[in-house]
Amino acid sequence: MRLTPFALSLLPLIFVTAWSSALAEIGVSAKVPSDAEILLDGSRETLDQKWTYWKGPRFSSSLPIKWKIVEDPVDTGTVVMTDDPAAAGGKYGTADIVTKKKYRDFRLHVEFLVMKPGGNSGVYLQNRYEIQVLDGDKTKHGMGAVINRTESPYHAYNGTGKWNAYDITFRAARFKDGKLVEKPLVSMYFNGKKVHENVTINKVWGGPNSGLDGGNNNGFGITDTPGGIKLQCEGHDVRYRNVWIKELDLKTADTDFRE
Predict the structure, then answer these.
(1) Which of 38, 75, 164, 223 has its Cβ near the most Cβ atoms within 10 Å?
(2) CA angle 257–175–248, rounded 5-degree value
(3) From which residue to which does the signal peptide run (predicted)?
(4) How far apart are CA 51 and CA 114, in angstroms?
(5) pTM of the predicted model, to two decimals?
(6) How far is Cα 157 from Cα 188, in angstroms, rounded to an integer?
């Protein structure tokens, strides 16, 4: 097909528009795509409708969810604060929240703000695999790391008192005849910078208190069951907003949202 001179003249505009649209869907204050499911919008209604506590072996809180809805300390509107007395002293697993819906492959957008130095939380994919939120830690257990698997991409972190964004694509483990044949994969942008590409996840870390399958064969006993998105409460003031997800069917987790 031959394009007319007029059509050719529109190509730069079409390219710029598509590029701008892709950029609008990553990073802090990313626009929610029309085909995405909103998981957190700063309202009590959405928090109670879409989330519940993860009732693992260490769970010691009670419904309704004790996390607070507070004013956004940077921008307008309200956000969700990881404040639950059950987690005081850093007791993870006591008051973590998880989506009621469970997922396999997906693209996830999460915005978080750490209020004080040393603030600790975490984003769990399928309630199994943690993407760390931990201010001040640049190790494989630190900020933005696929926990204990990659080094922390700390250079991409905006710091305390500022909003940060994870844009994650996740491809769930694949099974055949009940046996694991392909390990889970994850890719991620951190504040618009690509920091992880097709990282293979080998196990669930943290033991039975951390999430699904954590107590199975020292975390290597991954099962073929979907899981929710979990946000960790560790007795620190970490705040979340603009959390949304798109279910996918991925051949690879390497999805570049800017292409």
Answers:
(1) 164
(2) 25
(3) 1-24
(4) 21
(5) 0.90
(6) 13
Per DSSP, the three-state class of 202 is coil
Cα–Cα distance, 195 to 145 (Å, whole number): 9
Structure tokens given for 29: 């204050």
- Residue 234 has, within 13 A of its CA and on its CB side, a CA count of 19
List phi, psi (to 5°) of 83: -120, 105
Backbone angles phi, psi at 157, to 5 degrees: -75, 135
Contact yes or no for 44/64 (Cβ under 8 A): no
User: What per-residue confidence (pLDDT) applies to 18?
Assistant: 39
Q: Give the residue-averaged pLDDT of 137-148.
A: 97
| Element housing 241 (H / E) | strand 238-248
pLDDT of residue 251: 80
- Spans of all domains in the chain: 5-248
Buried/exposed 124-162: b ≥16 CB within 10 Å, e otherwise: bbbbbbbbbbbbebbeeebbbbbbbbbebbbebbeebee
